[in-house]
Design goal:
Mean pLDDT: 80
Largest sheet: none
Order of helices and strands: HHHHHHHH
Low-confidence stretches: 92-102
Helix content: over 70%
Distance between the termini: 17 Å
Number of strands: 0
Amino acid sequence: MTLKLLVLFLTPLLSGLLVYLVPKGKGTNFRLLLVFAGSYLFAITVIHILPELYHQSIGTELIGLFVLAGFFLQQLLEYFTSGVEHGHIHTHEHHDHGHHHHKHDQTQQSISAIVLLVALCIHAFLEGGMLAEPASMGPHYDVNAILLGIALHRAPAAFALMTVLAFQLGSKKRALPYLIGFSLAAPVGLLISSSLAEAEVLSEQGLILLYALVCGNFLHISTTIVFESSPDHRFNARKMAVAIFGALVAVGVEYMI
C-alpha cells in the first residue's frame, strides 16, 4: 500500500516540477514518450485488465456496460480538460484591453483552471480507487503492471497540466497548488476505496465494476494517444517502433510479475 501511495503521489508531482527545467514539452522526445506510455497502457489493458475482468463471476454483459461507460465518461471529461491527461498542451495568447477586462480574464482563467483540475482529479481518483485489490482476483493477482501504466500516463499529464496552468495563471508558483491537488487525487482514491472495501461498504462486486469503469477510461486514453501521434495518418517508423516497444514492455512486465 505504501509503495502504491508513494508512486501515485510522487510521479505526477516530480513530473510536473520538471516544467522548471524543461519549459516546453512540444518536442519530438515528449511526443515519443507519450506514444510509449499510450502503447504500454493499451497493451496492459488488453492483456491484463480485460482478461481479469472477464474471469470474474459477474455477468460479462454488466462488465461490458461498465467498460463502455468508462470509455464515454473519459470522453466527457476531455471536454473540460482539452486532453491534458494524455499530454496535450494548449496555450493561447490573451491580449489586455484595459484594467477591467484584465481582471475579468483573470477570473475566467482561475475558473477554467479549477474546472480543469476537478475533471483531471475525477479521473485520477478513479484510477487510484481501482488499485484496491478485490479478493476474487485470486492470490496471484498483482497490480504492479497497472500501477506502472498509471504512473507512465500521469507523468506527461502532470507536465502538461503545469505547462498549461503556468501560462493561464501567469506564473508557475500559482500553478503549484493545482499540481499538488492533482498529485493527491489518486492516493486519496486508493485510500478511500481500500477503507470502504475493508469496512464492507464497497463490495467486491463494486470494486470489480470500478475496475471495469477505469478499464474503459484506459482504452479511451491509450487509443487516443496512439492514434493522435500520427494525425495525418502517415507511416512514421520511429513512432511505430516506440509503440511496439511500449507494448512489448507491457507484455514483459505482465509475464515477469
